[in-house]
Amino acid sequence: MMDNDTRPTEQTADEAAAAELEGVPEELLEKGDAQAELVEALKADLEAAKQDVLYAKAETQNVRRRMEKDIADARAYSATAFARDILSVADNLSRALESIPAELREDDKMKNLVAGLEATGREIDKVFASHGISRIAAKGLPLDPHQHQAMLEIPSADVEPGTVLQELQAGYMIKDRLLRAAMVAVAKKPD
């Protein structure tokens, strides 16, 4: 059995580290502290660089998505300016057809002209449809300020106020965007 005087003494971790460093020159100890600080600074820089890389990757992905959307929009809506210009041609063709009286439509000399104008109108409608251009429904519907432009109000007891009674000029959409608002006459309460 060991008595208390012969028992080995237990050292704490700090005492053990101090014992290991005994006899090490002071300048080497200072260099060790400087190297430890340098290692800690490099670790912090590495962590910051990792964060910067993650942010750069996220930003690159966002830019790529925005560019893909811009390209898709450019493809879908590239014909917008041209379509607006062609709408006036379609309007004039419709006016020409509407201006031909019913008795002249049956005249042998006018039948071919009317048939040609109607065929041209159908072809324009077909081309519009193939490019995603559609006519806005208006007559009999409530006024939609996103699609209709009220040009005048007509007193009417037959329908709800705000209902489109007459379409003065057709409106069109290209895909899901407004190309031209429909110009309409809207019902109001009679005086």
From TrEMBL:
InterPro entries: GrpE (IPR000740), GrpE_CC (IPR013805), GrpE_head (IPR009012)
SUPFAM superfamilies in the record: Coiled-coil domain of nucleotide exchange factor GrpE, Head domain of nucleotide exchange factor GrpE
Keyword Chaperone included in the entry's annotation: yes
Keyword RNA-binding: no
Localisation per UniProt entry: Cytoplasm
Family annotation (PROSITE patterns): GRPE
Disordered: region residues: 1-22
Pfam families (alphabetical): GrpE
Keyword annotations from UniProtKB, A to Z: Chaperone, Cytoplasm, Stress response
Subunit structure: Homodimer.
Family membership: Belongs to the GrpE family.
Role played: Participates actively in the response to hyperosmotic and heat shock by preventing the aggregation of stress-denatured proteins, in association with DnaK and GrpE. It is the nucleotide exchange factor for DnaK and may function as a thermosensor. Unfolded proteins bind initially to DnaJ; upon interaction with the DnaJ-bound protein, DnaK hydrolyzes its bound ATP, resulting in the formation of a stable complex. GrpE releases ADP from DnaK; ATP binding to DnaK triggers the release of the substrate protein, thus completing the reaction cycle.
Protein name: Protein GrpE
